[in-house]
């Protein structure tokens, strides 16, 4: 994988230590000089649910059609973190299985939890219950999840020595993900899109370098200046592993994949250009080559200053957080890309008529083509379940074929 964008449009520090690609230690640790793992990836032999390069079909779920900017009669809707602690049925299950890793790495529990919101609300997307850190042990990074501290990386990588622990992703260690997706696909069929997801390289790297959750990102930002060759090697490894993980999810049954660059918004835009975008570009390029019909959604928390940059990654849909005005986001991104979001999660604590008004405002601002209704972030703990049900009921009440006032100016231009 060649990262030519790394040297374009970046500050001088982005070019420091650019000779790392040909260094002896880099080759020794299992990489070619172009950044590709020298060790062949071991496929887990999954039978696969479908061929990645399958063509568009009239039976595709509503969400997939909207992601491809095909005409739909209403906005498909799902919620980030829609399976989780706000649901009483989830909390009851968690009492019996208090370990988050057990819940997110055991096929039966993954399927049961993933289907809880489907059975309760019938959203248009059923996202697998998992975590962006789930694949880490499969390529050499061990972690724990503690009740108070959250994710804890046992051996943070901040030096060339730390890179020695990395290896090609072993998909056999992630069979519970593949099995869960296959079961979900069979359970839901084409009534809703099965959604897989991954963390973007920069976001995953923040945990690996910082040693866990952080609010300051000081260690990894320091590495951008003091050990750029180490950070680039880590990000290159992550981009390849994540791309393979996406292909695996698609082969196992995922209709659509969301890439969470959750902490990309913690970077100034010029640093995001150097330290996040090139690696997302590489992942998108790989997936578009291997799974061209699989829509990709990119979400960044705090993305108001990055929208135009996000579009150039080549993803199909940009997710907006709630701090971006939907009409402004649509204007900035144009009508040739999908858009997702962006109701403020706190609105679900408001009276239901206020929630209805906000949903209608967001849908009208986004337009009738290429919009996936969602929150601007995940469902908050304590969110009333009747508000979640109301959210989906309102979404299903739209009819773009009949209601003229849902047609935005952007749609009129497209028409």
From TrEMBL:
Keywords: Chlorophyll biosynthesis, Decarboxylase, Lyase, Porphyrin biosynthesis. One of its GO terms (biological process) is chlorophyll biosynthetic process. Pathway: Porphyrin-containing compound metabolism; protoporphyrin-IX biosynthesis; coproporphyrinogen-III from 5-aminolevulinate: step 4/4. CDD domains: URO-D. GO terms for molecular function: uroporphyrinogen decarboxylase activity. It comes from the Eukaryota. InterPro entries: UROD/MetE-like_sf (IPR038071), Uroporphyrinogen_deCO2ase_HemE (IPR006361), Uroporphyrinogen_deCOase (IPR000257). GO terms for cellular component: chloroplast. It catalyses: uroporphyrinogen III + 4 H(+) = coproporphyrinogen III + 4 CO2. It is found in: Plastid, Chloroplast. Coiled coil: none annotated. Catalyzes the decarboxylation of four acetate groups of uroporphyrinogen-III to yield coproporphyrinogen-III. Homodimer. This is Uroporphyrinogen decarboxylase. It comes from Capsicum baccatum (Peruvian pepper).
């Amino acid at each position: 994988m060649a990262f030519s964008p790394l040297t374009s449009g970046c500050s001088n520090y982005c070019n420091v230590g650019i000779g790392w690609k040909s260094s002896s230690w880099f080759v020794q640790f299992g990489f070619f000089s172009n950044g590709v793992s020298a060790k062949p990836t071991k496929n887990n032999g999954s039978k696969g649910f479908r061929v990645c390069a399958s063509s568009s079909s009239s039976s595709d779920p509503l969400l997939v059609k909207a992601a491809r900017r095909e005409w739909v009669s209403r906005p498909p809707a799902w919620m980030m973190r829609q399976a989780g602690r706000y649901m009483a049925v989830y909390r009851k299950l968690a009492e019996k299985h208090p370990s988050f890793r057990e819940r997110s790495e055991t096929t039966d529990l993954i399927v049961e939890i993933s289907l809880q919101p489907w059975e309760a609300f019938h959203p248009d997307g059923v996202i697998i219950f998992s975590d962006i850190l789930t694949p880490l042990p499969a390529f050499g990074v061990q972690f724990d999840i503690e009740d108070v501290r959250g994710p804890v990386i046992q051996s943070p990588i901040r030096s060339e020595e730390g890179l020695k622990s990395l290896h090609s992703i072993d998909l056999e260690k992630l069979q519970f993900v593949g099995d869960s997706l296959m079961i979900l696909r069979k359970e839901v069929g084409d009534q809703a899109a099965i959604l897989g997801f991954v963390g973007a390289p920069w976001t995953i790297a923040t945990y690996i370098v910082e040693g866990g959750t952080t609010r300051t990102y000081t260690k990894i930002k320091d590495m951008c200046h003091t050990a750029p060759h180490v950070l680039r090697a880590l990000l290159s490894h992550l981009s390849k592993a994540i791309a393979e993980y996406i292909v695996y999810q698609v082969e196992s049954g995922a209709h659509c994949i969301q890439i969470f660059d959750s902490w990309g918004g913690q970077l100034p835009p010029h640093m995001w250009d150097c330290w996040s975008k090139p690696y997302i570009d590489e992942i998108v390029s790989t997936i578009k080559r291997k799974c061209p019909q699989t829509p990709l959604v990119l979400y960044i928390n705090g993305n108001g200053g990055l929208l135009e940059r996000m579009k150039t990654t080549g993803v199909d849909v940009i997710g907006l957080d709630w701090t971006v005005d939907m009409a402004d986001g649509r204007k900035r991104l144009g009508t040739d890309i999908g858009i997702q979001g962006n109701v403020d999660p706190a609105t679900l604590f408001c009276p239901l008529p206020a929630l209805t008004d906000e949903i209608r405002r967001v849908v009208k601002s986004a337009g009738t083509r290429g919009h996936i209704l969602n929150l601007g972030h995940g469902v908050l703990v304590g969110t009333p379940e009747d508000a979640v049900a109301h959210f989906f009921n309102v979404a299903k009440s739209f009819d773009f074929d009949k209601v003229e006032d849902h047609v935005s100016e952007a749609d009129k231009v497209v028409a």
